[in-house]
Amino acid sequence: MAKFGYSVFQRISTARLLRKICLLALTVPFLASSTIGLATAGERKYEYEYEGENETYAIGLWGDLPYSDIQATKGVPNLIADMNSQNLAFTVHDGDLKGGNSTPGSVTPTTCSNELYTQALGYFNALKAPAAFTPGDNDWTDCDRPSNGGFNSRDRLDYERQVFFNTNFSLGQHRLAQEVQTRPLCLGATGATPCVENRRWTVGKVTYATLNIQGSCNNLCDTAPDPEEYEARNRANIAWMKKTFQVAKVRNSVAVMFISQGDPGWDLTDGTRAPLRDPKTLAQTDGQPDGFQDFLLAFRDEAIAFRKPIAYVHGDSHYYRLDKPFLDAQGRRIENFTRVETFGDNAANGTNDVNWLKVTVNPRSREVFSYQPQIVPGNRVAVPSP
What's the pTM? Predict the structure, then answer.
Protein backbone atom coordinates (compact mmCIF):
# COMPACT_ATOMS: atom_id res chain seq x y z
CA MET A 1 0.00 0.00 0.00
CA ALA A 2 1.28 3.47 -0.80
CA LYS A 3 1.94 5.82 2.11
CA PHE A 4 0.74 9.39 1.71
CA GLY A 5 1.71 12.22 4.00
CA TYR A 6 2.57 15.84 4.40
CA SER A 7 0.17 18.66 3.46
CA VAL A 8 -2.75 16.41 2.51
CA PHE A 9 -3.23 15.40 6.13
CA GLN A 10 -2.38 18.23 8.51
CA ARG A 11 -1.77 17.58 12.17
CA ILE A 12 -3.66 14.33 12.64
CA SER A 13 -2.69 11.40 14.79
CA THR A 14 -0.84 8.43 13.37
CA ALA A 15 -3.82 6.15 13.85
CA ARG A 16 -6.20 8.51 12.07
CA LEU A 17 -3.61 9.03 9.34
CA LEU A 18 -3.39 5.31 8.64
CA ARG A 19 -7.18 4.96 8.46
CA LYS A 20 -7.39 7.88 6.03
CA ILE A 21 -4.55 6.43 3.95
CA CYS A 22 -6.46 3.20 3.46
CA LEU A 23 -9.61 5.03 2.45
CA LEU A 24 -7.81 7.35 0.05
CA ALA A 25 -5.82 4.51 -1.51
CA LEU A 26 -9.15 2.99 -2.59
CA THR A 27 -11.06 6.12 -3.54
CA VAL A 28 -8.68 8.91 -4.59
CA PRO A 29 -5.44 7.43 -5.95
CA PHE A 30 -4.75 10.45 -8.10
CA LEU A 31 -3.66 12.35 -4.97
CA ALA A 32 -0.33 10.55 -5.19
CA SER A 33 0.88 12.94 -7.85
CA SER A 34 0.42 15.94 -5.56
CA THR A 35 2.13 14.60 -2.47
CA ILE A 36 5.69 15.37 -1.56
CA GLY A 37 6.84 11.76 -1.31
CA LEU A 38 5.95 8.13 -1.84
CA ALA A 39 7.08 5.06 0.08
CA THR A 40 6.20 1.46 -0.68
CA ALA A 41 5.39 -1.04 2.03
CA GLY A 42 8.88 -2.49 1.78
CA GLU A 43 10.65 0.80 2.43
CA ARG A 44 11.73 2.12 5.80
CA LYS A 45 9.54 4.72 7.42
CA TYR A 46 10.60 8.18 6.29
CA GLU A 47 11.45 10.24 9.35
CA TYR A 48 10.62 13.61 7.80
CA GLU A 49 6.91 14.39 8.01
CA TYR A 50 5.67 17.66 6.55
CA GLU A 51 2.59 18.80 8.46
CA GLY A 52 1.37 21.91 6.69
CA GLU A 53 2.19 24.56 4.15
CA ASN A 54 3.42 27.02 6.77
CA GLU A 55 5.67 24.57 8.59
CA THR A 56 9.46 24.99 8.69
CA TYR A 57 11.67 22.35 7.07
CA ALA A 58 15.27 21.89 5.92
CA ILE A 59 16.88 20.87 2.63
CA GLY A 60 20.45 19.90 1.66
CA LEU A 61 22.45 21.34 -1.27
CA TRP A 62 25.70 19.94 -2.69
CA GLY A 63 27.57 19.54 -5.98
CA ASP A 64 30.85 19.48 -7.94
CA LEU A 65 31.64 16.10 -6.38
CA PRO A 66 33.41 13.69 -6.50
CA TYR A 67 36.57 14.73 -8.34
CA SER A 68 39.02 12.08 -7.11
CA ASP A 69 39.25 8.54 -5.78
CA ILE A 70 39.41 9.66 -2.16
CA GLN A 71 36.37 11.87 -2.63
CA ALA A 72 34.49 9.05 -4.36
CA THR A 73 35.35 6.37 -1.82
CA LYS A 74 35.54 8.37 1.40
CA GLY A 75 34.47 12.01 1.10
CA VAL A 76 31.11 11.59 -0.62
CA PRO A 77 30.05 8.59 1.50
CA ASN A 78 30.89 10.66 4.60
CA LEU A 79 28.83 13.55 3.23
CA ILE A 80 25.86 11.30 2.43
CA ALA A 81 25.97 9.78 5.91
CA ASP A 82 25.99 13.28 7.39
CA MET A 83 22.96 14.33 5.35
CA ASN A 84 21.18 11.09 6.27
CA SER A 85 21.73 11.86 9.96
CA GLN A 86 19.63 15.01 9.64
CA ASN A 87 15.93 15.49 9.03
CA LEU A 88 15.81 16.81 5.45
CA ALA A 89 12.80 17.28 3.20
CA PHE A 90 14.97 16.70 0.11
CA THR A 91 18.48 17.21 -1.29
CA VAL A 92 19.75 18.64 -4.59
CA HIS A 93 23.10 18.02 -6.32
CA ASP A 94 23.80 20.96 -8.65
CA GLY A 95 25.90 19.05 -11.18
CA ASP A 96 29.43 17.89 -12.04
CA LEU A 97 29.72 14.22 -11.14
CA LYS A 98 33.46 14.21 -11.91
CA GLY A 99 36.43 16.47 -12.57
CA GLY A 100 36.89 18.34 -15.81
CA ASN A 101 39.40 15.73 -17.01
CA SER A 102 39.95 12.10 -16.15
CA THR A 103 42.57 10.99 -13.64
CA PRO A 104 45.11 8.50 -15.03
CA GLY A 105 45.22 5.33 -12.94
CA SER A 106 42.05 6.13 -10.98
CA VAL A 107 40.17 3.20 -9.45
CA THR A 108 36.81 4.99 -9.65
CA PRO A 109 35.20 6.27 -12.88
CA THR A 110 36.74 9.57 -14.01
CA THR A 111 35.92 9.52 -17.73
CA CYS A 112 32.39 9.85 -19.10
CA SER A 113 31.92 6.10 -19.38
CA ASN A 114 28.60 4.56 -18.34
CA GLU A 115 30.19 3.54 -15.03
CA LEU A 116 30.38 7.20 -13.99
CA TYR A 117 26.60 7.55 -14.05
CA THR A 118 26.10 4.20 -12.32
CA GLN A 119 28.34 5.41 -9.48
CA ALA A 120 26.38 8.67 -9.18
CA LEU A 121 23.04 6.85 -9.21
CA GLY A 122 24.29 4.80 -6.28
CA TYR A 123 25.14 7.97 -4.34
CA PHE A 124 21.73 9.54 -4.96
CA ASN A 125 19.85 6.40 -4.03
CA ALA A 126 21.89 6.08 -0.83
CA LEU A 127 20.27 9.32 0.36
CA LYS A 128 17.35 8.77 2.69
CA ALA A 129 15.53 11.94 1.62
CA PRO A 130 14.35 12.52 -1.96
CA ALA A 131 17.38 13.39 -4.11
CA ALA A 132 17.12 15.82 -7.03
CA PHE A 133 19.91 16.41 -9.56
CA THR A 134 20.71 18.76 -12.42
CA PRO A 135 23.49 17.91 -14.92
CA GLY A 136 26.90 19.59 -14.94
CA ASP A 137 29.31 20.43 -17.75
CA ASN A 138 31.87 17.89 -16.55
CA ASP A 139 29.36 15.07 -16.94
CA TRP A 140 28.15 15.92 -20.46
CA THR A 141 29.32 19.17 -22.14
CA ASP A 142 33.00 18.42 -21.53
CA CYS A 143 32.78 14.71 -22.29
CA ASP A 144 34.04 15.40 -25.82
CA ARG A 145 37.50 16.17 -24.43
CA PRO A 146 39.99 13.42 -25.35
CA SER A 147 40.89 13.08 -21.67
CA ASN A 148 37.25 12.26 -20.88
CA GLY A 149 36.95 9.58 -23.54
CA GLY A 150 36.11 11.72 -26.55
CA PHE A 151 32.37 11.07 -26.27
CA ASN A 152 29.67 12.90 -28.16
CA SER A 153 28.31 15.45 -25.68
CA ARG A 154 24.72 15.17 -26.82
CA ASP A 155 24.92 11.41 -26.48
CA ARG A 156 26.13 11.69 -22.89
CA LEU A 157 23.31 14.09 -22.01
CA ASP A 158 20.84 11.68 -23.61
CA TYR A 159 22.28 8.93 -21.44
CA GLU A 160 21.90 11.05 -18.31
CA ARG A 161 18.29 11.63 -19.25
CA GLN A 162 17.78 7.87 -19.42
CA VAL A 163 19.57 7.10 -16.14
CA PHE A 164 18.48 9.96 -13.86
CA PHE A 165 15.34 11.40 -15.43
CA ASN A 166 13.29 8.49 -16.73
CA THR A 167 10.30 9.07 -14.42
CA ASN A 168 8.52 12.10 -13.00
CA PHE A 169 9.99 11.40 -9.57
CA SER A 170 13.25 12.33 -7.91
CA LEU A 171 15.91 9.83 -6.95
CA GLY A 172 16.66 8.80 -3.36
CA GLN A 173 15.26 6.18 -0.99
CA HIS A 174 12.07 8.23 -0.81
CA ARG A 175 10.81 9.90 -3.93
CA LEU A 176 9.48 13.33 -4.65
CA ALA A 177 6.88 13.94 -7.37
CA GLN A 178 8.16 16.52 -9.85
CA GLU A 179 6.78 18.43 -12.82
CA VAL A 180 8.82 17.79 -15.96
CA GLN A 181 9.50 19.89 -19.06
CA THR A 182 8.12 17.36 -21.52
CA ARG A 183 7.98 19.46 -24.69
CA PRO A 184 10.71 18.41 -27.18
CA LEU A 185 12.52 21.75 -27.03
CA CYS A 186 16.07 20.46 -26.51
CA LEU A 187 18.39 18.66 -28.93
CA GLY A 188 19.83 15.19 -28.39
CA ALA A 189 22.09 13.04 -30.52
CA THR A 190 19.27 12.19 -32.93
CA GLY A 191 17.30 15.44 -32.94
CA ALA A 192 14.62 17.17 -30.91
CA THR A 193 13.99 15.70 -27.46
CA PRO A 194 12.21 16.70 -24.25
CA CYS A 195 14.31 18.59 -21.68
CA VAL A 196 13.32 16.09 -18.99
CA GLU A 197 16.17 17.19 -16.72
CA ASN A 198 14.33 20.48 -16.11
CA ARG A 199 12.16 19.83 -13.06
CA ARG A 200 9.84 21.76 -10.75
CA TRP A 201 8.18 21.00 -7.41
CA THR A 202 6.53 22.88 -4.57
CA VAL A 203 6.97 22.04 -0.89
CA GLY A 204 4.64 23.99 1.33
CA LYS A 205 4.65 27.55 0.08
CA VAL A 206 8.00 27.50 -1.74
CA THR A 207 8.50 26.52 -5.39
CA TYR A 208 11.77 24.93 -6.64
CA ALA A 209 13.08 24.35 -10.16
CA THR A 210 16.18 22.97 -11.86
CA LEU A 211 17.63 24.42 -15.07
CA ASN A 212 20.20 22.82 -17.38
CA ILE A 213 22.64 25.77 -17.52
CA GLN A 214 26.31 24.90 -17.86
CA GLY A 215 29.86 26.06 -17.41
CA SER A 216 32.20 25.96 -20.44
CA CYS A 217 30.30 28.97 -21.83
CA ASN A 218 27.07 26.95 -21.67
CA ASN A 219 28.37 24.73 -24.51
CA LEU A 220 29.59 27.62 -26.68
CA CYS A 221 33.32 27.07 -26.14
CA ASP A 222 35.84 24.37 -25.15
CA THR A 223 36.60 21.31 -27.32
CA ALA A 224 33.55 21.12 -29.57
CA PRO A 225 31.19 24.11 -29.21
CA ASP A 226 27.60 23.33 -30.18
CA PRO A 227 25.66 26.57 -30.86
CA GLU A 228 22.64 24.70 -32.18
CA GLU A 229 22.30 22.66 -29.01
CA TYR A 230 22.84 25.77 -26.89
CA GLU A 231 20.18 27.80 -28.70
CA ALA A 232 17.54 25.12 -28.26
CA ARG A 233 18.33 24.46 -24.60
CA ASN A 234 18.61 28.17 -23.79
CA ARG A 235 15.12 28.80 -25.16
CA ALA A 236 13.86 25.85 -23.14
CA ASN A 237 15.51 27.14 -19.96
CA ILE A 238 14.03 30.62 -20.39
CA ALA A 239 10.58 29.12 -20.97
CA TRP A 240 10.90 26.87 -17.90
CA MET A 241 12.12 29.75 -15.75
CA LYS A 242 9.24 31.99 -16.80
CA LYS A 243 6.72 29.21 -16.29
CA THR A 244 8.13 28.58 -12.81
CA PHE A 245 7.47 32.17 -11.81
CA GLN A 246 3.94 31.87 -13.21
CA VAL A 247 3.33 28.68 -11.26
CA ALA A 248 4.71 30.27 -8.08
CA LYS A 249 2.31 33.18 -8.45
CA VAL A 250 -0.68 30.89 -9.04
CA ARG A 251 0.25 28.81 -5.99
CA ASN A 252 0.84 31.94 -3.94
CA SER A 253 4.36 30.75 -3.16
CA VAL A 254 6.27 32.96 -0.74
CA ALA A 255 9.63 32.29 -2.43
CA VAL A 256 11.31 30.54 -5.37
CA MET A 257 14.61 28.64 -5.55
CA PHE A 258 16.33 27.80 -8.84
CA ILE A 259 19.19 25.28 -9.05
CA SER A 260 21.64 24.98 -11.96
CA GLN A 261 25.31 24.13 -12.47
CA GLY A 262 26.98 26.99 -14.32
CA ASP A 263 28.24 30.16 -12.68
CA PRO A 264 27.27 32.77 -15.30
CA GLY A 265 29.11 35.65 -13.63
CA TRP A 266 27.04 38.52 -12.35
CA ASP A 267 29.36 41.52 -12.24
CA LEU A 268 32.98 42.68 -12.63
CA THR A 269 34.32 41.61 -9.25
CA ASP A 270 35.76 38.09 -9.60
CA GLY A 271 37.19 37.02 -12.94
CA THR A 272 39.05 34.14 -11.29
CA ARG A 273 35.82 32.24 -10.61
CA ALA A 274 33.30 33.37 -13.22
CA PRO A 275 32.96 35.35 -16.46
CA LEU A 276 33.23 39.09 -16.04
CA ARG A 277 29.93 40.79 -16.80
CA ASP A 278 28.68 44.36 -16.94
CA PRO A 279 26.15 44.28 -14.10
CA LYS A 280 23.86 46.81 -15.80
CA THR A 281 23.74 45.42 -19.35
CA LEU A 282 24.62 41.85 -18.30
CA ALA A 283 26.97 41.65 -21.29
CA GLN A 284 30.09 39.54 -20.85
CA THR A 285 33.26 41.64 -21.03
CA ASP A 286 36.10 39.08 -21.20
CA GLY A 287 35.87 38.25 -24.92
CA GLN A 288 34.62 34.70 -24.43
CA PRO A 289 31.40 33.47 -26.10
CA ASP A 290 28.49 34.54 -23.92
CA GLY A 291 26.12 31.68 -23.20
CA PHE A 292 24.28 33.45 -20.39
CA GLN A 293 23.26 37.02 -21.25
CA ASP A 294 19.93 36.21 -22.88
CA PHE A 295 18.89 34.07 -19.94
CA LEU A 296 20.04 36.61 -17.36
CA LEU A 297 18.17 39.47 -19.02
CA ALA A 298 14.94 37.46 -19.04
CA PHE A 299 15.56 36.25 -15.51
CA ARG A 300 16.19 39.78 -14.21
CA ASP A 301 12.84 41.00 -15.49
CA GLU A 302 11.03 38.10 -13.84
CA ALA A 303 12.94 38.47 -10.56
CA ILE A 304 12.05 42.14 -10.23
CA ALA A 305 8.40 41.49 -11.08
CA PHE A 306 8.11 38.61 -8.58
CA ARG A 307 9.08 40.86 -5.63
CA LYS A 308 9.35 37.97 -3.15
CA PRO A 309 12.59 36.16 -2.08
CA ILE A 310 14.50 34.31 -4.81
CA ALA A 311 17.49 32.04 -4.28
CA TYR A 312 19.63 31.11 -7.28
CA VAL A 313 21.80 28.08 -6.45
CA HIS A 314 24.75 27.03 -8.59
CA GLY A 315 28.12 25.32 -8.40
CA ASP A 316 30.86 25.42 -11.04
CA SER A 317 33.48 27.63 -9.37
CA HIS A 318 33.80 25.55 -6.19
CA TYR A 319 33.59 28.39 -3.73
CA TYR A 320 30.92 28.47 -1.04
CA ARG A 321 29.36 31.93 -0.87
CA LEU A 322 26.15 33.84 -0.34
CA ASP A 323 25.85 37.30 -1.86
CA LYS A 324 23.68 39.70 -3.82
CA PRO A 325 25.55 40.48 -7.05
CA PHE A 326 22.49 41.03 -9.28
CA LEU A 327 21.78 44.65 -10.29
CA ASP A 328 18.97 46.19 -12.30
CA ALA A 329 19.59 48.17 -15.48
CA GLN A 330 20.11 51.33 -13.41
CA GLY A 331 22.76 49.72 -11.24
CA ARG A 332 20.55 49.23 -8.17
CA ARG A 333 20.87 46.01 -6.19
CA ILE A 334 17.95 43.61 -6.64
CA GLU A 335 17.15 43.14 -2.97
CA ASN A 336 14.95 40.04 -3.23
CA PHE A 337 17.65 38.03 -5.04
CA THR A 338 20.37 35.93 -3.37
CA ARG A 339 23.10 33.97 -5.16
CA VAL A 340 23.98 30.72 -3.37
CA GLU A 341 27.09 28.82 -4.42
CA THR A 342 27.60 25.38 -2.95
CA PHE A 343 30.84 23.80 -1.76
CA GLY A 344 32.82 21.89 -4.38
CA ASP A 345 35.97 19.93 -5.07
CA ASN A 346 39.32 20.88 -3.60
CA ALA A 347 41.19 17.87 -4.95
CA ALA A 348 44.56 19.19 -3.85
CA ASN A 349 43.43 18.76 -0.24
CA GLY A 350 41.69 15.40 -0.45
CA THR A 351 38.31 15.58 1.24
CA ASN A 352 38.71 19.26 2.19
CA ASP A 353 35.58 21.14 1.00
CA VAL A 354 33.57 17.93 0.53
CA ASN A 355 30.77 19.54 2.49
CA TRP A 356 27.16 20.57 2.00
CA LEU A 357 24.80 23.42 2.72
CA LYS A 358 21.75 23.12 4.93
CA VAL A 359 18.95 25.53 4.09
CA THR A 360 16.17 26.10 6.60
CA VAL A 361 12.94 27.09 4.89
CA ASN A 362 10.47 29.02 7.03
CA PRO A 363 7.50 30.26 4.96
CA ARG A 364 6.40 32.46 7.86
CA SER A 365 9.67 34.42 7.97
CA ARG A 366 10.32 37.52 5.89
CA GLU A 367 13.39 36.17 4.06
CA VAL A 368 12.14 32.53 3.98
CA PHE A 369 15.61 30.97 3.49
CA SER A 370 18.41 30.80 6.07
CA TYR A 371 21.72 29.05 5.43
CA GLN A 372 24.05 26.93 7.56
CA PRO A 373 27.22 25.36 6.09
CA GLN A 374 27.65 21.74 7.15
CA ILE A 375 31.33 20.86 7.58
CA VAL A 376 31.40 17.06 7.52
CA PRO A 377 33.50 15.95 10.52
CA GLY A 378 35.12 13.04 8.70
CA ASN A 379 36.18 15.27 5.79
CA ARG A 380 38.06 17.92 7.72
CA VAL A 381 41.70 18.25 6.60
CA ALA A 382 43.39 21.49 7.70
CA VAL A 383 41.76 21.41 11.14
CA PRO A 384 40.83 17.79 11.90
CA SER A 385 37.66 17.09 13.83
CA PRO A 386 38.26 16.86 17.62
Answer: 0.89
